[in-house]
Fold this sequence. Notes:
By secondary structure, the chain is mainly alpha-helical. The chain has 24 helices and five strands. It has a five-stranded mixed β-sheet with strand order 2-1-3-5-4, with helices on both faces. Helix 23 (418-431) links the parallel strand 1 and strand 2. The longest helix is centred in the middle third of the chain and has 23 residues, at 195-217. It is globular.
Amino acid sequence: MPYKNRRSTYSSFILIFVLIKIGLNLLAIAHFGFHRDEFLHLVLADHLDWGYKEVPPFIALLAKITISIFGNSVFAARIFPTIAAGLIVWLTGQITVELGGKRFAIALACLALIFSPAFAASDYLFQPVVFDQLWWVLAVWFLVKYCNTSAVKYLYFLGLVVGVGMLTKYSMAFFTFSLLFGILISKQRKMLLNRHILGAALLAVLIWLPNIIWQFQHHLPVFTHMSTLQKEQLDYIQPSDYIKQELMVNGIALFVWLTGFIFLLFSVRLHKFQFLAIAFVLIFTFLLVMHGKPYYLFGAYPMLFAAGGFGFERWLKASGLALRGVVIAIFTVPGLLILPMLLPVLSFGQTLSFFRFARKNMPAMQFLVTWEDHKVHATTQDYADMLGWDEMAAKVDSAWKTLTPEQQKHTQIYADNYGEAGALHHYDKQFNLPEVISLNSSFTLWAPDNLDGEYIIYVDDQGGGNINSFKSALESYRKIGEVENPLAREKGTAVFILVHPKKGLTDRYSKELARKRLE
């Protein structure tokens, strides 16, 4: 029978789970405030280019479209991530169908993904993460479609996706090479002899090329960023911790993706897709060796969920609806119960109550509130990164208003980190503030050549500790206030007015700017 007649699309059925995912995101979309990283990515809309210090240009273009069409609210910023999250569920269902799964397999694969802690927590913020996941899943879908149809158009679609993926997050390269090596090692290696593979690769490179050129023009900042990330964060991730976290991030759905992994490796029915399991081993091992963060691997799980759904369907093919319903409940209800810790579906007060309840009754969930500093906190790190920004901006505004109109003409605002700078950029129209300056992250790319204000409103992320290193280069300074929200990661961040900076401070700024522009 022709391929198209052997496969039911089940599109309407898959759409049910897409709507569930989108519905959950919509419940959470405007709760709390902007995340630290969201501020940075939204700032990029005002500085469109082919690259940035820490990310390729895709997120900047998306930020520009978001602000132009939907505005600059929290709700607006999270529209595209919600759409991408829905598409990931859609593609997971479609991959399940391509593997031979039917309704039960689709339901299990999609619900396991929807209520997985990993995907609940990462697929609603305006960050490259969710779009990176989308390109990984789409790449797998095109490869699986090609395996089933031998239609070369899917290879070119794959090249297109890899190119756009490289403009989104460089981790796309790791996954692409893992897939290629997985194919080379598997019995599907003859696929690589197809000349259209080269055409697809050329298409991917052409799409990525403007960013490659930008990188060389700016002294390859991607390597500086990766080196800094390695020293400041990744080196603290032990291999044992990485393995443990990867086994925990999907919660009880671990058993769904592990089943999928086993079926991809050993099932006769999935033998032509074995390269997916090999690719997973390769990317897992690479990230383990490189001390990668757990979320770097998230985009590889949907294909395993799809295969897991197929596997359970094979095991339970003679079982009744009741048993199948119990199996689905086992793999979804636990994720549903802890959902407020991952996705802000409740109000702020209700969420805090839930965390207090969890500390007393769910000690196994302690890893969710363990931050990068390896300490246990009152909320998750992501939630803490959404708090305190409006308070900080209000204190900067208070400092601004203590200055006379004449003094304001000669005043600059400087922030230590990109979260603070991004927040002030967001609030500058509301408070009528001058553009913020920072030498952190991509803000270096458009920072002015000189710090020459007679007055500087300084946001010190060390609560005043940084001022000690240059206070001798000031005529005087005074503290206006600090972030007091005890749950915010920015708690203690202080706002100062620096009066008549001397040449020593301006020289220090110029040297730091020159150094960072060469990184």
